[in-house]
Amino acid sequence: MPFWKRAVPSGETSFDATFRYETSWILPPAVLCLARALLSLYAFTTIFTIFGYNGTHKLSEASEHSFSYFTNLTYWGLAFYFLVSAMHTCTYCLTRTPLLARWTRPLQIAHGIFYSTIVVYPWIVTIVYWALLYSGTFNSAFSAWTNTSQHALNSVYAVFEIIFPRTAPLPFLHLLPIIVILALYLALAYITYATEGFFVYSFLDTKRNSSGKVAGYIIGILVAAIVVFLIVRYLIMLRVWITEEKLGKSGKFVHRERTYTDGDAEKGVSPGVVTAK
To answer: Which GO cellular component terms are attached (predicted)?
Structure first.
């Protein structure tokens, strides 16, 4: 068995006991899988179309520098998250046990953090772009499409994952990696300047802006990230409360949820794990 997979030991409560990452309160698992796969396909198509356009219009340097931009890094993150989440939902549909349930606990936790980033970071990208970077017009239809895809539709991806899956509210502990990743990106931005000679974002340019102004922008983005995290957390909490407590929507499964008895422990069945009847 590959090092990154394992069977769930008998008697152990699983990381995602009722398959919240793989199921929806309203969409059947197969439909959720298809929706995620299509969203991933659109994101990857956008990315590689941009690379192809740059390559055919003597803009290859823009592609080479693309990984220095937070926008592009988070868009890659969306593309891969929706691909991986579609894979987990697909394996749940086919085997009733998602691949996520067979991963090691560190990778399961990493997936949870990954989810937190894709429902938080797109909002930061959208806010910063339209508030600080948008010039008021696009110089071509292609530019309008790519910027809309990466700076507006990216938040639609986040909305989808906030509303439709059965995911639980973001743990407060996930705020730490959210902040750490932002700090690491800030370091990358200045490493890019030191090695490539350009600032990825004008508001980080200490030659055009005072140190105090740059610090203000950085602190503002940090505060915005914390606020967005809290808003998303409580939006998900509201969704869970409305759908599960008020509407009684326990979720769309590929089979019914079984009732557990005291004798299940003797049979090696973990309480809280959904299995077929």
So the answer is: membrane
Confirm whether 20 is domain-assigned: no
CB 126 within 8 A of CB 29: no
Q: Is residue 34 part of a domain?
A: yes
Asked whether residue 255 carries a pLDDT value surpassing 80, the answer given is no
The total number of residues written for the chain in this structure: 277
Distance CA 90, CA 142 (A): 34
| E strand intervals along 81-145 | none
- Is 256 among the domain residues? no
Predicted local distance difference test score (pLDDT) of residue 264:
37
Contact present, 254 and 32 (Cβ < 8 Å) = no
In a domain? residue 257: no
pLDDT at 111 over 70: yes
Q: Which long-range contacts (CB under 8 A, 24 or more apart) does 211-219 make?
A: 217/132, 218/186
Question: In total, how many domains does the chain have?
Answer: 1
Nearest partner of 235 among 181, 152, 165, 182, judged by Cα: 165
Instruction: Report DSSP letters for 53-68, one per residue.
Output: HHHHTT-HHHHHTGGG
Q: Which residue has the higher pLDDT, 45 or 276?
A: 45
Pair 275, 17: CB distance under 8 Å = no
